[in-house]
């Protein structure tokens, strides 16, 4: 009886084994849960399943990266890793790599010649640790965008703004009409605004000094003060309902004309296109807020935690190779509204805003590293806390904020 | 009983020792071991991974310089004081009213106590919905009070009170139940005597009953106080610490630094401070409760 | 906390209110008593009422109407959506996966923790050994240590045991943290049983396990009921341990609820959120309404867990 059962089982396994040989379920964790993001994740899942054999098991974790990251990191540290995970490339995974918890992708990358087609080069650099490659970048996301609704401005009787200064000037008129000038959420979104203002108003020099060189003097200087003053302006332009609002709800406010604009990375574009909105007509985009057209090349990358099961490791390699392939890059990035990591593919179907982005990135001078690449998570957390505190407290002075910002910059490692 | 058996060696009373093994392991490994580990590593500069590179009290210095931590401490103090005072006062008053030979006592008890069966996540989400701008605020405005504002969730100085309201909603019923049990435990003779002497009811409560219920009050106090330090789920569900950092609490600080911001040392230092706080509450109480009764074994 | 249990056990004997002298039916003081109680009852019922009403409305009605108004048009769609369609990421299977995960976590945790604690409480009350009181005292202290203090080392320990991020892992964690209060509960209960029973059995030559199974267990049904209620509600409502130790595929219902409510696609669907919230609260509420008096005793003892 028992033997019979085993025999029956092994027969069925052998039968199914033709197609299933070496198949693995690959659990993939990510925090792509908004409409546009989920659509993009679906592209990846479908492409991967199409390869046959292995299966994408979706492990989406809702909330923002700051909710999902601890769950992901604690799982890897806890020795029960997923098959693959999204992280922002940069220093988030630094120590995990150091501790030898990530699968080395160097062999695959050399075979496929990643270094030849992945651009800008900095993407691969931030996946590299001691000359070995540990992650597969999938897209380029830049924070330095503002999304506006021209109709909202027309309704208030002002010209749609071309830059931050005009936007600030138009704000009172919007408020009169009951339109929130600046739609945003809390926490990391406020931190994003702060970072974008640093680059767009302060310029590349200042951005690198305070974020890369940890230059306390620059952080205390007049240029930085201007930036923080702008953050104070932003503070006065947000509505009290910003607390607890997710970024895509804020994007929705812009889309429906309840708000004038939003400072948010280019992933917001995915929301517009999912809703069928047309760039240049239904919404406008201002890279670098229309001031300094700088874009950072942060983005998402997939890491593959080390695994004891060789089938999983094989599946990991397959996924890694697929993620940077031409076909996936096009389909995925069109859905997500981000830019591809390959310089050799045709993005003719990209919309007006994405084309603006591609053009800016073509000049290496315009590229800045993202704060995820420059700051340790600890520093990132402190600055986020500070920016969020400043934003929520109209009584906190610009000087106070600047001094505390400088202290964090000086103590950063 | 076991007392008359002479403890002759490890194998005496072996079954009982085997039965107690999970407890012994939990006490040694988790409650003592893990706690010591945390205290030791709170003096290191560990980031994502624990490492024994000692940096003295650096983590603590930074902790008490961090405005987020100070806001967290302030919030937990406000939350703690208010929920202690209100839940005890309201819980006691409700218990007294419940003790007036009323009808439908069971119905009332059921109503007061059901929130306690709910998860903090559920409580947080419900109150978030009631207090959000589409909730009470809109109702009152629709009634014609156009300028009515109830920015409990959006005003940084009020948000902690919103959490207090939700916390009280969930917890007061329990205090009521404890107090009611305490009241029922009071000897009826006391009431008879008070009545004979013509002492007004309220005076009897304040000067006779409450002092007699001291153990119940102390127990309730300790229960609430130690629960307060653990406040976490409610904040996560209701405000996630916002606006800005205005509703942050220590337990969330620990979690964020351990897992999100990859600064283990900082998170461990914060949790050590939490531990110290609990000990400060607990030890005097334990000495008061157990110390006088018998000298050994706590 | 020892008192709390003791009081509950004792008070259970006489449920007659001792309170002040009886009042006439419509005396001002009677009206005041009922007035206060009714106002308080309304405050406690309000959120439940709002939850139910919101979950039965369509989105347009929520946007226009007020939260206290009953639905003009009753719809059960939010309930269906919350149970089987709400999305977290790619999977739009509603909160039911979380429900089954919670069931899978709760059952073994409840059984394991009660088994261990009942035997342990029995040993502590009838078979004391050298050091048993010391361990017990530390165990009780442990109930008050903030979880955050032990969180990270426990991650390491469960990792080393290879059970981090698994159902087993979260069950072990629940068993550990349920131990202080359950042990206290059982120890006090067994100690309150007449010692003659135990002595007689000893004279008859019965050993540790036989006395436990043949004499103690049959007499302790009530305390087991209290323990089960306590554990089911406590473990069902847990968030922190679920989020850290259960692993993404095993997230309990509370974690998934928080996920669903926070993953917004387009606009927030308050009706679906509220339906999901009620569904998450349904199990402990049901237990609460069904168990009545036992529940009061259980939580009075369990409040230690906070």
From TrEMBL, chain A:
Signal sequence interval, chain numbering: 1-23
Subcellular location: Periplasm
PANTHER family: ARABINOSE-BINDING PROTEIN-RELATED (PTHR43649), BINDING PROTEIN COMPONENT OF ABC SUGAR TRANSPORTER-RELATED (PTHR43649:SF28)
Native organism: Paramesorhizobium deserti
Superkingdom to which the source organism belongs: Bacteria
Annotated Pfam families: SBP_bac_1
InterPro entries linked: Bact_solute-bd_prot1, SBP
Keyword Signal: yes
Name used for this protein in its record: Probable sugar-binding periplasmic protein
GO CC annotation: periplasmic space
Function noted in UniProt: Part of a binding-protein-dependent transport system for a sugar.
Protein family according to the UniProt entry: Belongs to the bacterial solute-binding protein 1 family.
Automatic annotation (TrEMBL), chain B:
Biological process (GO), any one: transmembrane transport
Record keywords, A-Z: Cell membrane, Membrane, Transmembrane, Transmembrane helix, Transport
GO CC annotation terms, alphabetical: plasma membrane
Protein's cellular compartments: Cell membrane
Topology versus the membrane: Multi-pass membrane protein
Domain ABC transmembrane type-1 positions: 73-285
Entry keyword Membrane: yes
Ranges that cross the membrane: 21-43, 76-98, 110-130, 158-183, 204-229, 268-288
Major subcellular location class: membrane
Record flagged with keyword Membrane: yes
Listed Pfam families: BPD_transp_1
InterPro entries in the record: ABC_transporter_permease, MetI-like, MetI-like_sf
PANTHER family reported for this sequence: ABC TRANSPORTER PERMEASE PROTEIN
Family: Belongs to the binding-protein-dependent transport system permease family.
Protein name: Sugar ABC transporter permease
Protein source organism: Paramesorhizobium deserti
From TrEMBL, chain C:
Keyword Iron: no
Organism, as annotated: Paramesorhizobium deserti
Domain ABC transmembrane type-1: residue ranges: 99-291
Phylogenetic classification of the source organism: Bacteria, Pseudomonadati, Pseudomonadota, Alphaproteobacteria, Hyphomicrobiales
InterPro entries assigned: MetI-like, MetI-like_sf
Protein name: Sugar ABC transporter permease
A single Gene Ontology CC term: plasma membrane
Pfam families named in the record: BPD_transp_1
Main location: membrane
Cell location: Cell membrane
Family: Belongs to the binding-protein-dependent transport system permease family.
Membrane topology: Multi-pass membrane protein
GO BP terms, alphabetized: transmembrane transport
Transmembrane domains' residue ranges: 31-52, 105-123, 135-157, 163-186, 207-230, 272-290
UniProt keyword terms in alphabetical order: Membrane, Transmembrane, Transmembrane helix, Transport
